[in-house]
Amino acid sequence: MFSPSSSFGSTNDNGVSRKFIDLLVEAINGEATAIGFYAEILTQVHGDQVAYDNVKHAYDDERKHFRQFSRLYMKLTGQEPRVRPKRVAYGSLREAYRLAFFDELEAQELYNKMYLMAKDRKIRDIFYGARNDESEHSQRFQYLYHREERK
Ligand SMILES: [Fe+2]
Ligand SMILES: [Fe+2]
What is the pLDDT of residues 26-45, one digit of tens each? Predict the structure, then answer.
């Protein structure tokens, strides 16, 4: 553990840099944004079980990531993260799936970077798991996008 005021140098006791903390804030906000985005999609696909199940799977994972990342942030900084989710605007479900697909790719890239930056085994495991989840989500959204196209 370290105190944020005294040891926010290049690295702290956990081998985590200031840059890593900044990326963690970005990750937390990305997860919060995805939770709101997918919750909105879920309200629109109640009659479509395939769409509902796939989006719900991603939604549940994002909630898990949000909890894991927030806990990690509190452990590393001793503070609660300031969460600022963005509203994702879309005109059609097809557009929503396309946006979600690219968001998932961005998240994979970010978590891959954070995995490589982290030295601590437990922190690495969190980002390894999250990266794999996002990889799976991107495939689910790609499937839904093409499925929507054929309707
Ligand atoms: Fe996620
Ligand atoms: Fe995801």
Answer: 999 999 999 999 999 999 99
Rounded to whole angstroms, how far apart are CA atoms 74 and 57? 26
Asked if 93 and 45 touch (Cβ cutoff 8 Å), the reply is yes
Angle between helices 49-77 and 121-149 (to 10 degrees): 160
Span 45-65, pLDDT tens digits = 999 999 999 999 999 999 999
pLDDT of residue 76: 96
Q: Which ligand lies nearest the alpha carbon of 100?
A: 2
101 Cα: distance to centroid of ligand 2 (angstroms): 9
pTM of the full structure: 0.91
CA of 133 to the centre of ligand 1 (A): 7
Q: Is pLDDT above 80 for 119?
A: yes
What is the CATH superfamily name and number for domain 16-149?
Ferritin, core subunit, four-helix bundle (1.20.1260.10)
CA gap 119, 38 in Å, rounded: 32
Neighbours of ion ligand 1 (CB under 5 A): 62, 65
